[in-house]
Design goal:
alpha+beta; binds zinc ion; 2 helices; single chain; 116 residues; 5-stranded mixed beta sheet; globular
Amino acid sequence: MLLDGLWHLTSTVAGDVWEPRRRFEAVCRGRGEERPAPCADHGCGVYARTHRLPATYVTTGPRAAVGLVALWGRVIEHEHGYRAQFAYPVALREPTLESERGPVRELAQRYGVALI
Ligand SMILES: [Zn+2]
């Protein structure tokens, strides 16, 4: 997402902005008050898959970035991945489309992560 002319990583579901060089903390807002995420009783938290997403999933949203993420704090394991309290990107996959490479390269530099 472009904010003030700069690319930012954001949640594809909640729309939360991940600030460069700062950990992202997921917060549960599921019961009218904020509390630490993830909860065992619903689906809050930062999601990460243990296996690569199908290409069709990645192309369904505009400007989707794909990569590796570090998770820590409270982490709940699921069949296909995890939900976590804290997260920060480790690496971003360089897109195959030339038109998408510029924004992802800018993101990698601003967030201090590798391009893979
Ligand atoms: Zn919750």
